[in-house]
């Protein structure tokens, strides 16, 4: 039996009143002339970084089915609605961006497929200003399915 993957497309305009950057479980990119159509695994977490003049905003989003259809928002530059786990700006925007870059590096890009528990704990660390590399390493190691080890029970 062949499983199909939900795909979400983000349209990244070349010009406009703001710039948009998207991070997620990347699949492919194509040029549309007016911008780029970037496809991501729709079942994974997708981060949307908006840069306006004098203002930045970040949305951490997921598949609405994972949150039972709660906190759903439609974004103009996405082809489908997403549930919003968090919205950040200012220093939290910067902390999240730096933390995601670090976790992406240590997880070899697998972090976007981690559970929602990972992402809610990362959001908490960011908001509490506890996103040190030490804490990020611990958090990632607890949630990385590639590092999961079988528990050996002894009698």
Protein model, in words:
The protein has 155 residues and is α+β, with helices and mostly antiparallel strands. It has one domain. Helix 1 packs across helix 2, helix 1 crosses helix 3 and helix 2 packs antiparallel against helix 3. The longest helix has 17 residues. The termini are far apart. The C terminus is likely disordered.
Features:
8 strands; 26% helix; alpha+beta; 3-stranded antiparallel sheet; 155 residues; 3 helices; 32% strand; 5-stranded antiparallel sheet; globular
Label the structural class.
alpha+beta
Helix count from the secondary structure assignment: 3
* Subunit organisation of the chains: single chain
Number of strands: 8
Distance from first to last alpha carbon = 39 Å
H and E order: EEEEEEEEHHH
> Average pLDDT value?
89
- Neighbour order of strands in the largest sheet: 2-5-6-8-7
Beta-strand residue percentage = 25-35%
**How would you describe the shape?**
globular
Radius of gyration: 17 Å
Characterize the main sheet: 5 strands, antiparallel
Helix content: 25-40%
Give a quick precis of the structure.
The protein is α+β, with helices and mostly antiparallel strands. 26% of the residues lie in helices and 32% in strands.
List the helices and strands and how they pair.
Elements lengths: L6 E7 L5 E5 L2 E6 L3 E7 L4 E7 L2 E8 L9 E2 L8 E7 L1 H17 L9 H12 L5 H11 L12
Antiparallel strand pairs: 1-4, 2-5, 3-4, 5-6, 6-8, 7-8
